[in-house]
Amino acid sequence: MAHSDPQILAGRRILLGVSGGIAAYKTVELARLRVSVGCDVRVVMTPGATQFIGPLTLQAVTGWPVSTDTFDPQQEAAMGHIALARWADLIVIAPASANCIAGLHAGQADTLLHTVCLASTTPLALAPAMNSQMWQHPATQANIQALQQRGVQCWGPAEGVQACGDTGPGRLQEPTELYQHIVAYFTRGSLAGCHLLLTAGPTREPLDAVRYIGNRSSGKMGYAIAKAAAAQGARVTLVSGPTALACPPDITRHQVQTAQQMYDQVMAQVSEADIFVACAAVADYRPETCAEHKIKKGTVPRSLTMVPNPDILAAVAGLPEPPYCLGFAAETDQVLTQAETKRKAKKISLLAANRVSATAGFDADENALTLLSDQGRIHLPQQSKQRLAQQLIHHLAEQYHAYLTIQNS
Predict the structure, then answer these.
(1) What is the CATH number of domain 6-187?
(2) Where are the CATH 3.40.50.1950 domain residues in the chain?
């Protein structure tokens, strides 16, 4: 068992889904193992699961009420299924019945558990448990394969004698085995052991005591990248311009206002970074002077003298021993041409180009990116920034490890 290193799971937020099946009784031990090492475990049960094990049992083990009803008036008054979907670091469904798996594949939302999964961008793992013939049926296998192609992990099933008397694949893996899978997930992420330094959000360049020059960046893309990198095991330091976003769990955030402050904070942190991601929309220029008091209407100057801000990405990439750098280029026209020019001028390994429009980019919930490197281009289509960030981190990890291989050869 993995009790030898309990710090791996300490503070992790794990949502345990329980679907209908005789193996549901094993989830009590699984929940207990996770709580014993400091995990915060919440449980969602399908109506079928409650026929095999009582919610009060799991409530007693986890210390939290068990959620079972999509239409619970107390929970849904605060959109409880959305809150659960956003809360977890990992969702594990054990046991995952054939019906549960089929519903996940089809995108159904007929139970609270299916609704939470459909509303979540959190990584999902399934521990199947069913009769061996049901497991081996082409429909179940097709459902599992489709889910795995979407990034869902499948832990098991084990083989052996089943409750119905049949022998074969279909048994739920033992709680200790599932526990090991969870430990491995948080230990062996694609960026495990890496320190990722990230900038996000806008900067504000003051004109006077109350006014500033800024842009429409919301910080959503950068914060989504921070969360996705942490989910893959990275130690994330976030240098953020002013946003209304909450800091994701387990991430160190330094808040700044101006481009100069962001530069200073990045340079103070970069010596410890393995990867630098420059996602912030940094102002290229700032007013030469800032009035100490509010400029009155009748005294507003007709022109402003602007001076350049430091180029944070170029400064980091130009260090004697720079981290692996991922830059961003937000453009409105000739996007790929201008982005490639930027990448070569700043001598960075990877650059993400995006077109700013009314529905994507700044201050929007969706975005699309094209990744540019010496190896070519990879297009990531328009989608939610959370899902886009997960895909981006996948490609970043691949490029980073390839870069390390070359450096060490």
Answers:
(1) 3.40.50.1950
(2) 6-187
pLDDT, tens digit, 9 for 90 and up, residues 111-157: 999 999 998 888 899 999 999 999 999 999 999 988 987 878 899 89
Where residue 134 falls (left for φ over 0; alpha for ψ -120 to 50; beta otherwise) is alpha
- Give the tokens for residue 335: 């996007």
Region of 120 on the Ramachandran plot (φ > 0 left; ψ -120 to 50 alpha; else beta): beta
Question: Which among 344, 353, 341 is positioned nearest to 378, based on CA atoms?
Answer: 353
Where do the CATH 3.40.50.10300 domains begin and end in the chain? 195-408
**Sheet harboring 252-255: ordered strands across?**
252-255, 235-240, 195-200, 275-278, 324-331, 350-355, 366-373, 376-384
Residue 327 corresponds to which tokens in the numbers above? 């830059």
| Euclidean distance between CA atoms 158 and 141, whole angstroms | 15
The rounded distance, in Å, linking the Cα atoms of 22 and 31 is 17
Phi, psi values for residue 66, rounded to 5°: -90, 135
**C-alpha dihedral (246, 249, 252, 256), degrees to nearest 10:** -10
Going 308 to 313 to 314 to 320, the CA torsion angle's sign is positive
Measured between alpha carbons, how far is 329 from 338 in angstroms, rounded to an integer?
Answer: 8
299-342 confidence digits (pLDDT tens): 777 788 999 999 999 999 999 999 999 999 988 888 899 999 99
Q: What is the 3-state secondary structure (H, E, C) of 81-148?
A: HHHHHHHCCEEEEEEECHHHHHHHHHCCCCCHHHHHHHCCCCCEEEEECCCHHHHHCHHHHHHHHHHH
CA–CA gap between residue 387 and residue 98 (Å, rounded)? 26
Q: How far apart are CA 94 and CA 18, in angstroms?
A: 5
- What is the rounded CA–CA span in Å between residue 328 and residue 368? 12
Alpha-carbon gap, residue 362 to 367, rounded angstroms: 9
Question: Would you please indicate which residues are annotated as catalytic (active-site) residues?
Answer: 164
Distance CA 131, CA 159 (A): 11
Q: Any idea of the CA torsion for 55, 133, 154, 35, to the nearest 10 degrees?
A: 30
336 exposure class (CB count in 10 Å sphere: 0-12, 13-18, 19+): middle
- Architecture of 195-408 per CATH? 3-Layer(aba) Sandwich (3.40)
Predicted TM-score of the model (pTM): 0.60
Q: What is the rounded CA–CA span in Å between residue 189 and residue 232? A: 4
